[in-house]
Design a protein that fits this description.
It is a single chain. The protein is mainly alpha-helical and 152 residues long. The protein is 73% helix and 7% strand. A two-stranded antiparallel sheet has the order 1-2. Helix 3 crosses helix 4 (63-75). It starts with a helix and ends with a helix.
């Protein structure tokens, strides 16, 4: 593969990643949370409910940090805690309708523009783009795990 296309691809990925970071930072600001809290809300949007231990693993946080984060988000009425249906010692966390409504209101223009942008591509092109993004995410996730394993 030629170095010029690799450089262009690298610059495009880096630019896209910076743009996503900027968008998330502004969304967090408008929601009144930090970026880790926002990531927690994103996880909860994608799942019906989650255990605090699972959130800790996904976010790379200690159990104490997750408890503090959940306390913050619960105070904002962005999530609620519920007893586990089969294990009284455990708790499950769910995003609230208030948080869902707020996130959807803020993201609706972006989602509309994204849907229109996708119309530029054929199904085969979208499958290729999806494959590239999935493979990139796998590499990224592997390296996140490696970085988390480093102790200083």
């Amino acid at each position: 593969m030629s170095s010029d296309i690799m450089a262009k691809l690298g610059a495009a990925v880096q630019g896209y990643q910076a743009s996503v970071d900027d968008y998330d930072r502004e969304l967090a600001r408008l929601m009144g949370v930090n970026e880790t809290d926002l990531r927690c809300l994103e996880i909860l949007i994608g799942a019906e409910e989650a255990a605090p231990s699972g959130l800790a693993t996904q976010l790379g946080l200690t159990s104490g940090s997750v408890t503090t984060m959940l306390d913050r988000l619960e105070k904002l009425d962005y999530l609620s805690r519920h007893p586990h249906p089969t294990d009284r010692r455990k708790t499950l966390v769910r995003i609230t309708p208030r948080a869902l409504e707020r996130v959807h209101r803020l993201m609706a223009p972006f989602l509309d523009d994204s849907r229109h942008m996708v119309e530029r591509y054929t199904r085969d092109q979208l499958e290729l783009i999806t494959d590239f993004l999935d493979a990139s995410r796998t590499v990224q996730d592997d390296h996140v795990r490696q970085l988390r394993a480093i102790t200083q």
